Structures are given as structure tokens and as C-alpha cells.
Amino acid sequence: MTYSKLRILVPLNDPGAEERLIRFAATLAQTRKGELHLTHIITPDEDYPWADKDLQWQRDLVASYGIGAKSHLVESQSVTQGIRETALRLKCNMMVMGWYHEVVKDAILAAENRALTKAIGIDTLIFKERNSFPFKRLLVPSGGGSNSLMGIQIAYELARDWQIPIEILRVARAPQEQYKPVLLERYCSQLFAGTKLQLELLGVDAPIHILPGKDVVTSIVEHTREGDLVVLGASNDWRQEEHLAGSIPDEIANQVPSSVLMVRSLSPEKSNLSQIFWENTIRLNMKPKNKWDAITQMVDALVEERQVPASERQNVLDLALEREHKSSTALGHETAIPHAPIPNLPGIIGCLGICPDGVDFGGAYDEPVRCIFLLLTPQQNYLSYIPVLAQIATFIKPEITRSAVLKCQTPSEITSLIKLQENHKDP
Q1: pTM of the entire structure?
Q2: What are residue 173's DSSP bridge partners?
């Protein structure tokens, strides 16, 4: 989140009733000496004759914060179209929206701001208020992705401006039996070191709390207090509208007793392996009966980690198995890349499984497979996975790398190897 000037678009459904959202956006703009563009879209079926007056009143409110503000009353056939065109015309680089429904599945599916966040290519913040200002603490659960990192940066600036404590929270998910106390302690230390490095790169000085837990959502909810503002990175994963309510951020927003700020950064076009395979989507010491069992276990891992909705588990599994039946996905070097095209999936989802004893994937290579990279790719752009295949091949081809991967005892050790390769360093 680096801007020469922060230009925040604030779409308002009811300008006369959204003062708290506007105050929050104004506070955010103060941290970067930005400006607000308060915008209401008039659609053909709307009857709101005093919208312009309400917008002017809110613009004057923002001026009291000592920052620039402009109001815009825009006619359009739809809210999404109007906001998109306004964001482009005004060259806005951030959007701040309110969430006024209950955070339950039906409300999420019906909300127009979901469509907006997907349609407009700028950084987006969605604010759900449960407890009023002033907040007592900023709690930032992080998974290490781009959305989480942007959330950390924003929360850090707000904490300094509001002069309240901030805490960065990483959940060391440890559901597997092999996570004995010594290994769990090692995994927690690795997560702490990785998170500390990320904070240093962001220029953030904040306390880090590593919390062991079997379930990410439950661990975060139990750690949250009333009076917190929880800053969450939005899900990068499954974005089909009918399944959005099942993502980890949505589950947390539904259950925490405090206000929530959901952050979605403008995603880079290129997908690195470290963005696809991260700690919670890596499974060590797998012992499948055969390749079909291996693929099944890995799909189940993605369901368990809420990367795939439980309702879509069988469909995803059938597609992955169907692809494997056509021809083996083994590519040599003790590696296989089973994959499946998924309808309406806008990004790539992955799971990495390590099978030290090996599993027979058949095909032209007379060797057991020990490294399995499962990829779910967009059906509408199925070839988008080809650059990822190339990255996997480059990463796993050297015998020294495969040997290092098989020696890893925690997921963090594998992600470190992947990031080393991405930085053109030898493992």
C-alpha cells in the first residue's frame, strides 16, 4: 500500500445515516494526508431527493478533520457500474465501504459490496461496526498473504494515530499427530521469525503473538475481546458467490464480538508459489494407500482449511480424479501435479503433500512420487496454471531441493525453501 497521495472513494448507500463510516474513513485519510470522495449512486428506481444535501453535510463533517473532501452524486444504471466508473474517473486508489447487514450467509450473498470489491481493481476496506469508537485495541490476525500484510500496515498507522495497543496474531494450526511438543515449539518459533521479518520489511514495530490451535477461526474468536477492532485480510481463495460465506475471514467476522475491518489489496497479476502453497495448505508425512487416496486426502485438506467449501468437496474431488484418470500427472523427479479446472474460480488454489515413503502415480516415470502439488485452476482460463507448473518444475527439479523438502519437519521450513527459490537463492 504505497501511494503518492491517498484518494479514498467512499460509496454511500444512505449518506444521511453513515456518519460513523465517514468518520472512520476520515481518520484513515488523516494518517496519509489523503482526501475523501463521498459518492452516492442514483439508479433509475431510486427515490432519494435529499441525497445531495446529505452528501454536502457529510463533506463538511470531513472538513472538520482537516482533510480534503468532495461529494459526488452520480446517475447510473447500476451501483456497481456507477462506482467503477467513478473510481476510474477520479483516479481513486482505495475504497472504504460499510457493512450494515448481519454477518450471516444470506446477508453476505445479497450484499452489493461483494460485487463491488470484485469488480473494482483498487485496494478495498469493508468496515463492520459492532462496538463504537474509541476502540481499545487493534487485533490483526495474519496469514502472511498480501491482504494480511496490507491489513497490518493500515492497523499500525491507525494504532499510532489513535494511540492504542496493536497485536499481530498468527495461529499455529497443529491438527496433525506428528506435531509433538518439540515440533510445535519449533513451528511456532518459525512462524514468529517469519512474521517478524515481514513486519521489519513493512517498517512496523508491533508485538507478535503466536497462538497454537487446532482451528484457526475458534482460536482467533476466543482471543478477541470486546472493544477490539479486528483487522482481517479478505479471502484470496474461493470466490464463487454462493460459497463466499464459508471463507475463514467471513467465519471470523460472523463470530467475533467486536468490530471488523476487512482488507483486500489489489492483487498482483503473477502468482508465486509462496502465494499458492502456504503453511496451512501443506501436509507432511502423508501415507496414502495409492494416488487416488493421496488426491482425496489433499482435497480434504483444502476443505479442512476452508479453501474449498464443504459443499463443493465431492465436485472438486471428482474433477481432480477425472483429470488423473485421463493420464498420469507425474512429471518425474519424484513429483506429480494433479490438477482440476473449476468453474468460476478466479484464482489458483493449491495444496502440497509430502509422502516420504512414496506413492505410485504410474505414467512414464518408474519411480515413486514423494512431492505432490495439487492445483485447482479457473476453468474459464485453464491455461493460467502453465506458468505455475513451470515454477514448480524449476523449484523441484534439483535433487538438493527435493532432499531439503523431504527433510523438512514443519510447513514453515518448506515455505522458506520456496521463498528462497523465488528470490533466486540456493536452498
Answers
A1: 0.72
A2: 213
